[in-house]
Design brief:
single chain; mainly alpha; 3 helical TM bundles of succinate and fumarate reductases; 5 helices; binds protoporphyrin IX containing FE; metal-binding; transmembrane; transit peptide; ubiquinone binding; mitochondrion inner membrane
Length: 111
Amino acid sequence: MASKLINADLIPASFYHKTSIAAGVLLPLGVFTEGSLSLPFDLLLGVALPVHSHIACNYVIADYIKPPALNGAARAGMMAVTAVTLAGLLKLNLTGPGLSASVKQLWKKSE
Ligand code: HEM
């Protein structure tokens, strides 16, 4: 299990494709709903996005970083990035404005 988390390119591709579809479906659902209606989409997206980017970046690491020591360091670094992202998005969704409201703020005029 731990080995599959750090070598996430070994996770079945069918699961990875599902995370891509989830990211593509959940983001508009979150953005086009308001307030507490967005929360379930934001919470799911807060997991789907880091899992998607974790597996995807492990594909890139497997393809482009061949020396074993560097490859291991890159995978460990990616694991840390994913863990921090998961925690940050959870905090944003539970104690802040939420992921989709934060995205929408990009298009709001600052006061
Ligand atoms: C709403 C956000 C996102 C959506 C809808 C999305 C969707 C997709 C889709 C459809 C693919 C093609 C692969 C497939 O067939 O499944 C893909 C690939 C990829 N995504 Fe995302 N993505 C999102 C966010 C991200 C983020 C935040 C990252 C972070 C780095 C990322 C990294 C990648 C990479 C590296 C690939 C290529 C993987 C490979 O080598 O095949 N994506 N994404």
